[in-house]
Specification:
Structural class: mainly alpha
Number of helices: 5
Low-confidence stretches: none
Distance between the termini: 16 Å
Number of strands: 0
Shape: elongated
Largest sheet: none
Length: 78
């Protein structure tokens, strides 16, 4: 995510190349990419010991569905 922040100027340059691609779609690509990377890192690096109390999946199961939905929706709008 930090590396992609350094490349934010490339969004505007790419949009100049292809006028049909709306600029807002770059944000959606970025958002879904960050979500996919967070899940990938959490599922691979966050579960060295699935029985540990601080493992990724255990934390997800412990959270209420409402808390997960609020975190997802608020992260999108901030």
């Amino acid at each position: 995510m930090l590396l992609s922040m350094l490349c934010w100027g490339s969004w505007a340059n790419t949009q100049k190349i292809d006028k049909r691609w709306r600029f807002e779609l770059f944000y959606w690509d970025y958002m879904w990419g960050v979500l996919a990377c967070a899940l990938l890192f959490g599922l691979t690096l966050g579960t060295k010991n699935p029985a540990a109390p601080d493992s990724f999946l255990r934390n997800l199961y412990a959270a209420s569905p409402r808390s997960l939905a609020e975190a997802f929706l608020r992260g999108r709008h901030l």
